[in-house]
Design goal:
The complex is a heterodimer of chains A (373) and B (165). Chain A has one domain (60-342): Orthogonal Bundle (Cytochrome-c3 Hydrogenase, chain B), CATH 1.10.645. Helices cover 47% and strands 13% of the residues of chain A. Chain A has 15 helices and 8 strands. In chain B, 24% of the residues lie in helices and 18% in strands. A 3-stranded antiparallel beta sheet of chain B has the order 2-5-7, with no helix packed on it. Chain B is elongated, with a radius of gyration of 28 Å. Chain A binds chain B through residues 57-58, 60-65, 67-68, 128, 135, 145-150, 153, 155, 163-164, 167, 187, 190-192, 194-197, 200, and chain B through 7, 10-11, 13-15, 17-18, 21-22, 33, 44-49, 68-70, 111-115, 127.
Chain lengths: 373, 165
């Protein structure tokens, strides 16, 4: 392409230390005045060799490291790994383990989406929704702390079972929390989602058309924001998600083209309510059982390989594990949802204003630690 | 012009919707959402996982915790006890056959996953509820647990209170 205005292009670095970059991300912006001609993401500042590291630790010891990939939704991260190893070893967990895992994963999804919505408001200059979101997230973290002792990095899902059973009366308190929390989503909507200034800043910005989303392999709320109804929990159910009644919300394009920042944001808000529905159903059906019943004495999977994908709050998380029959994995490959969404960043940020870049990065809800691993 | 007025109107009204929520919080009879941390502390649940502690008098030096640790923060060195030495036991009656002369935990490496506490056969390695232990020197975070403590000379010593109860 012949850029006849190439002489006027200024290169501007956004990040790696920028208040609106979620983590340590450097964007190389080629700007023509206020318009961004091209935005090149430079990643790798938080690369910690997770995959190589996992080859030198025994299978149960990898779980704390999966927590640290996406610290905002650690339950979902370890769930994918644990399910992959269980699939490789052919372990069938009992119903109580399954249901508790679903409750914990969905609670963590709510917590993660609250962080996403709150910090997105923060990026766009509204402080109050952030406080409202974190107030409610704190209550979810209290449940986690009561259950497994940690607030953020749980190591709760073990291969073949769980660390602890639910503490006495937690089910009742979770239901009480949901009763309290569900009306507050409407408060959050009035604070942020239906705010005219917020809509104006997001509704026709950072549009990911459905075909672009598919071609880059974008998953999760970002894909559903583009109007494509795909959810691993629904399309390829794991952990018995087919037993639950929930909807897969998609972006409707209420205030602009489908696939804008606003659609991606609203999909997350709607997903929070669907997660509440799943938790209520899971608690209603929670059977008795022993959560330690199927934990193997020694984790030594047979020779083979496995790929397991789950729906984590940021999209489709895949674990590809190769076993050579020893107690340490031969290879652990992670398919990260944040990486795929960032790979298309050049495409959907072209032609945006510099101020809108902040809105776009916030709307795809990336966690850089998971992106770089 | 109409568009300008429309923007103004919607911007103003929707902002007031959210301001109304904020104002409502001003006047609600609340107990507050925050606590004054250093003076008031939130109660910790029973299962809280913080600093590691080892009751060395119960430790049999099997090293299972060190093998389970994914970050290798536990360093154990043991030697066989002599045959002529008097037998010692852990508090649950397990005979101690090894003398643990190094049991170091580097808390700067610990990732608080609690994987080490579960395989412990005598349940002497536990995660305590203590979380305020910042120090000025990094080396102070290496805890040396292997000190000479009086051991139970017979398994019966610990069993007595259980028999009373």
């Amino acid at each position: 392409m012949n850029l006849d205005y190439s002489g006027d292009i200024m290169t501007l670095n956004m990040g790696p230390q920028h208040p609106s970059m979620h983590g340590v991300l450097r964007l190389e912006l080629k700007t023509d005045g206020e318009v961004v001609v091209e935005a090149i993401p430079h990643i790798g500042y938080l690369h910690r060799c997770f995959e190589k590291h996992a080859e030198n630790i025994e299978y149960p010891g990898v779980v704390p490291f999966t927590d640290r990939m996406d610290y905002v939704a650690a339950m979902n991260m370890e769930l994918g790994y644990v399910l992959a190893v269980e699939k490789l070893m052919g372990i069938q967990v009992n119903d109580r383990v399954r249901y508790i895992r679903i409750i914990m994963a969905e609670l963590n999804r709510i917590a993660s989406h609250l962080v996403a919505a709150g910090t997105y408001g923060l990026d766009l200059g509204s402080w109050t929704p952030f406080l409202h979101c974190f107030r409610d997230r704190e209550k979810i973290l209290d449940f986690f702390e009561e259950t497994c002792g940690a607030r953020l990095l749980y190591n709760y899902n073990w291969i073949g079972g769980l660390m602890f059973d639910l503490p006495e009366g937690l089910e009742r308190r979770i239901i009480e929390f949901l009763d309290y929390f569900e009306p507050l989503v409407e408060d959050l909507n009035r604070l942020l989602s239906y705010n005219y200034i917020f809509i104006k800043r997001t509704a026709s910005v950072g549009i990911i058309p459905p075909e672009v989303a598919v071609s880059y392999g974008i998953t999760g709320p970002n894909l559903r924001g583009s109007g494509i109804k795909f959810d691993v929990r629904r399309n390829e159910p794991y952990l018995g998600y087919e037993e639950f009644d929930f909807e897969v919300p998609v972006g409707k394009g209420e205030f602009g083209p489908v696939g804008s920042c606003y659609d991606r944001y609203m999909v997350r808000i709607w997903e929070v309510l669907q997660s509440c529905r799943i938790i209520r159903q899971a608690i209603a059906k929670l059977p008795p059982g022993d959560v330690h019943a199927t934990i193997p004495k020694r984790v030594k999977p047979p020779v083979g390989e496995v790929y397991m994908r789950t729906e984590c709050p940021r999209g489709e998380l895949g674990y590809y594990i190769v076993s050579d029959g020893t107690s340490k994995p031969y290879r652990v490959k992670v398919k990260s949802p944040c990486f795929t969404v960032m790979s298309g960043f050049r495409e959907y940020s072209r032609g945006a204003m510099i101020a809108d870049i902040v809105a776009i990065v916030g709307s795809v809800d990336i966690v850089l630690v998971e992106l770089d691993r | 012009m109409t568009r300008y007025l429309k923007d103004l109107w919607y911007g103003w009204t929707t902002t007031w919707h959210s301001m109304w929520i904020t104002i409502r919080h001003l006047f609600r009879p609340n107990k507050g959402y925050t606590i004054q941390y250093p003076t008031v502390k939130a109660p910790l649940p029973e299962r809280a996982r913080m600093r590691l502690f080892n009751r060395i008098e119960d430790c049999i030096g099997c090293g299972q915790c060190a093998r389970a640790c994914p970050t290798d923060c536990i360093d154990i060195q043991t030697e066989k006890r002599g045959k002529d030495e008097p037998p010692v036991f852990a508090s649950d009656g397990t005979p101690i056959k090894l003398r643990t002369f190094v049991f170091d935990i580097d808390m700067t490496l610990c990732c608080y996953c609690a994987l080490c506490t579960f395989p412990c056969p005598t349940h002497c390695l536990v995660m305590t509820k203590e979380y305020e232990y910042a120090v000025y020197d990094k080396r102070d975070h290496i805890y040396h647990f292997a000190v000479d403590k009086p051991r139970y000379a017979s398994p019966a010593e610990k069993e007595q209170p259980a028999a009373k109860a």
